Amino acid sequence: MRSHPLHTPFRLTFGLTAGVLLLLTAFIGSIKLGLTRVDWQTLLEAFRTPDPTKEQLVVRSTRLPRALIAVSVGSSLAMAGALMQALTRNPLASPGIFGINAGAAFFVVAASAFFSVSSFQAYTWIAFFGAAISSLVVYGLGSTGRSGLTPLKLTLAGAAITAFFATLTQGVLVTNESTLDEVLFWLSGSIVGRDLSALAQVLPFMAVAWILTLGIARPITTLMMGDSVARGLGQRTGWVKFFASLCVVLLAGSAVAVAGPIGMAGLVVPHVARYLVGNDYRWMLPYCAVLGGAFLLLADIGARYLIMPGGPVVELLSGTGARVLADEVPVGVITALIGVPFFITIARRSVSE
Q1: Which end of the chain is more exposed for a tag (fewer CB within 10 A), N or C?
Q2: What is the DSSP string of 266-306?
Q3: What is the pLDDT of residues 207-250, one digit of tens each?
Q4: Range of the domain at 318
Q5: CATH number where 76 lies
């Protein structure tokens, strides 16, 4: 049996503590770093002064909500990915790969284009509905045939549904330019321009899903041994799968509603957590929550600097005469740049095994 780096209770606790410290460091970096320079004194006084300066206002009204959203969305996507990989026993499973993000995004875009929906609260419910529909369709397609549900069929079904909803979304946007202007940056996966009211709309759903996910960690670990073993130990596998699926819909749907379809966070982080702690979901899920938040915070910091004035891409393009049209790269682009090589590596390893 493979030994993992953190295989003792002391190491597991120490590793989780180190992860929390990494998360706090990334959080502080997220509210300090960016185009507007903020020194430590300004940062400390930003939350105490009744008459904030421009820099303090940026920290309070822009960077703090952005950091909180990044933590919540990153943790939710990572935990959703871990649950999906456990339920399907597929190392490639994640909300982005299995079409859940694409389905939620399509329904939001369609509602905005055809029904003039603009309420964020409505977007939340529509995103949940789209995530649930995509999950059911992928599960149904992956279960067809004599061999029943298999990881390969689930992966193919997920890829097909992702392409299907992505094509429908592009078709809607092409025929409705006003909707394109409203949702284009959101579709790239971004946490720019969101405020705390946006997070407040979905936080109750996220909190319920976090608690429920941690509550089913032990049954999920047992389920990883196989359905027959789990039933032999007295587990009601149907209920465990139902609650796990509900958590995936709540986690992925709320994340898409507030930040758009950010891909790869639900794929990369669970594999890092599994490498560290193994398949014990009592530890793996807390690690996913902490590392997922840190991952998205660090990706967001990188997104700010990539094409900001003086950034590497701007310096590169300035010599060619090209023009940068945005202030920064959507965080979903950064997670994709990190996640695609990771996805290819896992896919090749799965095929070779």
Answers
A1: N
A2: HHHHHHHHHHHHTT-HHHHHHHHHHHHHHHHHHHHHHHHHH
A3: 999 999 999 999 999 988 887 888 888 888 888 888 988 898 88
A4: 9-352
A5: 1.10.3470.10
